[in-house]
Design goal:
Helix content is 37%, strand content 15%. It is α/β, with parallel strands linked by helices. The structure holds ligand NAX and potassium ion (K). Ligand NAX binds next to α2 and α4.
Length: 550
């Protein structure tokens, strides 16, 4: 229950391993892959802007020193064959191009010229600028190449995404906008005072075989524009390599085997969340959400509402004496029980029908919360435990004490600040300005945190990453067609914690509940749209379920 159909996202090393395996198996040659990649870009341009296919236009193609540049030469040739006027710039020495790129450079040279120097007059305005400078091979910050890059960019002021072909050039990135790390979605930056964005935001990014993680996390969605993935005939090649111990060597000698457990997935629509006709309320579990005292119970009530709407059979709020009146005045379908401290909690948890717990929202930071969390985690009966907000911050002084108690049916749901309190060294590595690629990513950080904590970690953001200690990892991206900017509102995280708790009460495993919960949370926000506040989120879940056919 709750498992979704998911799309694979690859790292640059995994993509290289897949390509190299296909080439080594003689499934395809590198030259043919490059041809398909170039054709995929041209097809994607014409699909995106059919006007450009109708009549010849002018294109500027910026080629770099590697295979990304090789794709650029193919694109130049195909557009020229289509009757376009094409101007090609090359950054780097043609003699040092890798073999397939060199072949395509030579093929292009039979049709047109290549300039390496930035001319004072860049000629008439093109309809399309193709960025084929650097792809998955960018390993250090852009410096000199960015001069050419920016000159072209500034000359034609590609200033916004609502450009119309014929009036402003469209900027098309081959594989990934140059300078963006395809593993981390970060820009590799020079360690200089005026270091800053050196990539150019694209209107369209055309990647190959699979999207890369960097298209979906950190700055990726901000700079890729629309991302499409062209099929280059590698389907069926991304499974485990036949001999994982002896992967084929890449150009740089570094080529890990691609095993399914290493691949990150994009979270998709969860399946099987409907209820059976014969179900009764006890078949769908009983969630307990712990609350803070007077004036502090709103967060727990939001979480409880999320748990109930997502289908937990019963939901109880546990409140200290000072919070009872407020909760009683506000709750109807949700039950209420007085729970003052860890002793009360232990007594309540004697009831094994309480199979999922949500702790943290509004509970307060301090000893009482810490003791209650430890009591819940020490309980011998295995139940789902979602820890958020104050339940995480209460362990800021001694995260190891929390990690020692956590187990595989727990989910931590930190935002950036809470993550840094529990995993300061990991957060520091994640937040450092990268100067070398592939850079340390939010995926790497969340996987490291899950391993250390010994449970599922859901690291929130528009690029929410969910990882298990065994390395299973999914990304729930609220970007591109799923952007949900109104979700950044007070109480939204409390509802998410409740949704995950409700799913665990229904028997969904920790990782699947976190993935499905994050997906449903974004969909609920998108269903409501502008003006969303946290109270609206649980109320949109029925409509999201209806769309899912649940
Ligand atoms: N390997 C293959 O078979 C295929 C690769 N394809 C293309 O090849 C790309 C990957 O090619 P490469 O691995 O050659 O990598 P790139 O073409 O992305 O760049 C590698 C080159 O750039 C240099 N470099 C890296 N960062 C630099 C910087 N900041 N400043 C200056 N030079 C820098 C490297 O030393 C190397 O020479 C993909 O993104 C994709 O576009 C496609 O043609 C499909 C097939
Ligand atoms: K590129």
């Amino acid at each position: 229950m709750g498992q979704s159909l998911m799309v694979e996202l690859l790292t640059s090393a995994q993509m290289r391993a897949i390509e190299n395996a296909a080439i080594a198996n003689k499934t395809v040659t590198g030259l043919e892959l490059m041809e398909r990649a170039g054709r995929g870009v041209v097809d994607a341009i014409f699909a995106e802007w059919p006007e450009l296919q109708a009549a010849p236009h002018r294109a500027v193609v910026l080629c770099g020193p590697g295979n990304n540049g090789g794709d650029g030469f193919v694109i130049a040739r195909l557009l020229k064959d289509w009757g376009w006027e094409v101007e090609v710039f090359l950054y780097g020495d043609p003699a040092k191009l890798p073999p397939d790129a060199k072949t395509n450079y030579e093929r292009w040279c039979e049709m047109g010229g290549v300039r390496s120097e930035l001319p004072s007059d860049l000629g008439s305005k093109p309809a399309v600028v193709v960025d084929a400078m650097f792809g998955t091979g960018v390993t250090r910050p852009l410096t000199e190449p960015s001069d050419l890059y920016w000159a072209v960019y500034e000359r034609w002021a590609v200033s916004n995404r609502s450009v119309h072909p014929f009036s402003d050039p469209v900027w098309v990135a081959v594989d990934i906008p140059s300078g963006l790390c395809s593993d981390s979605g970060k820009e590799l930056e020079e360690d200089v005072l005026d270091g800053g964005a050196l990539h150019v935001p694209a209107h369209l990014t055309v990647s190959f075989h699979r999207a890369k993680i960097g298209h979906h996390i950190a700055n990726g969605p901000l700079v890729c524009g629309k991302t499409v993935v062209a099929d280059i005939g590698l389907e069926g090649c991304s499974g485990p390599l036949e001999d994982a111990k002896h992967p084929p060597e890449g150009a740089d000698g570094c080529c890990p085997a691609v095993s399914p457990s290493e691949i990150v997935h994009l979270a998709g629509a969860p399946r099987d969340l409907g209820k059976e006709v014969a179900d009764h309320k006890y078949s769908n579990g009983h969630a307990l959400v712990l609350s803070g005292g007077e004036g502090k119970s709103g967060a727990a009530r939001l979480a409880a509402r999320g748990a109930l709407r997502v289908g937990a059979g019963l939901v109880t709020v546990g409140a200290p004496p000072s919070g009872m009146a407020e909760c009683a005045a506000q709750l109807t379908a949700i039950m209420l029980k007085q729970i003052r401290d860890s002793k009360d909690l232990q007594d309540v948890l004697e009831d094994k029908r309480l199979n999922a717990l949500c702790m943290g929202p509004g509970m307060g930071v301090g000893r009482n919360t810490r003791e209650m969390v430890l009591a819940a985690l020490a309980s011998e009966y295995p139940r789902g435990v979602v820890l958020d907000a104050d339940a995480l911050t209460s362990f800021a002084d001694d995260p190891a004490e929390l990690f020692a108690a956590l187990h595989h049916t727990c989910v931590l749901t930190p935002h950036g600040g809470e993550f840094a309190r529990l995993f300061p060294d990991i957060a520091e590595a994640l937040n450092a300005t990268p100067t070398k690629g592939p850079a340390y990513s939010k995926v790497d950080a969340t996987r490291a945190a899950a391993k250390r904590a010994g449970c599922v970690v859901l690291f929130k953001g528009p690029d929410t990453v969910i990882a298990s200690p065994d390395g299973r990892c999914a990304l729930n991206s609220a970007a591109y067609g799923r952007a949900a900017p109104w979700l950044a509102t007070a109480g939204s995280g409390d509802v998410l914690a409740g949704i995950i708790t409700g799913l665990m009460a229904r028997g969904v495993s920790a990782q699947s509940a976190a993935e499905a919960g994050a997906w449903l949370h974004v969909e609920a926000a998108r269903k409501f749209g502008p003006g969303l506040i946290a109270e609206d989120l649980p109320e949109q879940i029925p409509a999201v379920f209806r769309d899912l056919g649940a």
